[in-house]
Structures are given as C-alpha cells and as structure tokens.
Design a protein that fits this description.
Shape: globular
Catalytic activity: di-trans,octa-cis-undecaprenyl diphosphate + H2O = di-trans,octa-cis-undecaprenyl phosphate + phosphate + H(+)
Pfam family, one: PAP2
Largest sheet: 2 strands, antiparallel
Strand order of the largest sheet: 1-2
InterPro entries: PAP2/HPO, PAP2/HPO_sf
Order of helices and strands: HHEEHHHHHH
Strand content: under 5%
Radius of gyration: 19 Å
Number of domains: 1
Keywords: Membrane, Transmembrane, Transmembrane helix
Number of strands: 2
Protein name: undecaprenyl-diphosphate phosphatase
Number of helices: 8
Structural class: mainly alpha
C-alpha cells in the first residue's frame, strides 16, 4: 500500500513534537539558570547585576538608556502582562467563545490562567526574593521578585489565546503566525520588566520558563490545544 499520502501529516506530527521538545529543553535550561542565581551572593548572580546596570545611564542608575518616549513604550509593553490587561483581554475572548457556544474553550482558558497564577503565587511565597535594589523602580510593585508574574502570565495568557484560536485554523502557517505573535508579546513583557528595573533578568527567565512548561503540560493534557482537525 502506498503511504505517500500520509507523509505530509506524519511530517507535521514530527515537527509538532520536535517543536515542543525544543521549547521544553530551552525552558528547563532557562529555569535552571534562573534558579542558580538564587544561590549566588546577595541573591543575584553577577550577570543579573551586570545586565541591569547595562540598561541604565552610566553614573545615573535612575535613568534607563534611551529617550523618554522609549521609556513610555516599555511601560506600555509591561502593561500587557498586568492583571487588568490580562483579565480584560480574557473576558473579551470569553465573550467571543460564548457567542460561538464554545464553553469548553472558556473552561480551558480559565484553567490555564488560574493554574499559572497559582504557580506564580506559590513560587513567590516560598522563595520570597527581594526586588532589585540597584535601580529606582519605574513602576509600582506589590509582590516578591521571583518569578516575574507579569512575564509568566503574559506567556501563558497570550500563548493560550493563540492556541485556542489556532485550533480552528486549517492553515499551518496561520497557526504558527498566531503562536509567533503570542511569543513576541511574552518576550516584550519580560524585556520591559528588566528595562524598568522591577525584576532581575533571572526572574524574567523563570517567568518564561515556567510559562512555557505550563503550556507544554496543558497541550499534552488537552486535545483541543493540539490542533487536531477532523
């Protein structure tokens, strides 16, 4: 029997597994690097301090590098991971799902975000890492430093949005585009947290890593997130 017709689907399946394996390995590496900084002198690795100071004007740690308008852009980026924006965008997407009678997707979305928030809260409670003391904060802070909650929630929220929307898209390139946009948003949030001086770089690495690992777990447990088409 000629199985050539099955080759494209088999290739896509292998690519999907390979992609998630690469993401998982990268996430574990980032998490290991982030955790290692917790055992360094003063609770922050030398690389953490160096990167933080490299983003400030020499001799004036209160002034981030770049023009004032760029600082405003970074504040806009960091807001993408804020609880207000995440909840607001989640409610909008839930409204869309309700109109389309996709109650299962609402449950998946809620479970994904609640689970990520629980993971963040547990890590912050037990690790209780202080916020960076090298620079003046450019945004209000309310919790411990490790991991970056904004980064973790942005990663989980936007990747979940993309995966649920992509589940009904037949074209692979369109699905990859949606997922790519989600990761760009997550990366932008993390970079902005470092730039604004409210997190150590390792806090952000942990946020990306934990978020990625949580999404891998979700995608393995929930068929809806595996982009299977009839």
């Amino acid at each position: 029997m000629d199985n050539s017709a099955d080759a494209p689907s088999q290739g896509r399946r292998l690519w999907r597994w390979s992609r998630w394996q690469v993401i998982g390995i990268a996430a574990l590496a980032l998490l290991a690097l982030a955790i290692s900084s917790l055992f360094a002198d003063d609770g922050a690795h030398t690389l953490d301090r160096g990167l933080m100071l490299a983003l400030r004007t020499p001799g004036t740690t209160d002034d981030p590098l770049g023009p004032k308008w760029f600082e405003d852009v970074m504040r806009d980026m960091t807001a993408l991971g804020g609880i207000g924006v995440v909840i607001g965008s989640t409610l909008v997407l839930c409204g869309w799902f309700m109109l389309r009678r996709r109650l299962g997707d609402i449950a998946i979305l809620a479970g994904s975000l609640v689970g990520a928030q629980v993971l963040s809260a547990i890590a912050k409670f037990f690790i209780s890492r202080p916020r960076p003391d090298l620079v003046s904060y450019e945004a209000e802070i309310y919790s411990a430093s490790f991991p970056s909650g904004h980064t973790l929630m942005a990663t989980v929220a936007y990747v979940t949005f993309a995966m649920l929307l992509a589940a009904d898209v037949g074209d692979r390139r369109s699905r990859e585009f949606l997922l790519g946009v989600a990761w760009v948003a997550a990366i932008a949030v993390g970079v902005s947290r470092i730039y604004l001086g409210v997190h150590w770089p390792s806090d952000v690495l942990a946020g990306w890593a934990i978020g990625a690992l949580w999404m891998i777990a979700m995608s393995r447990l929930i068929p809806r997130l595996q982009w299977r088409h009839g």
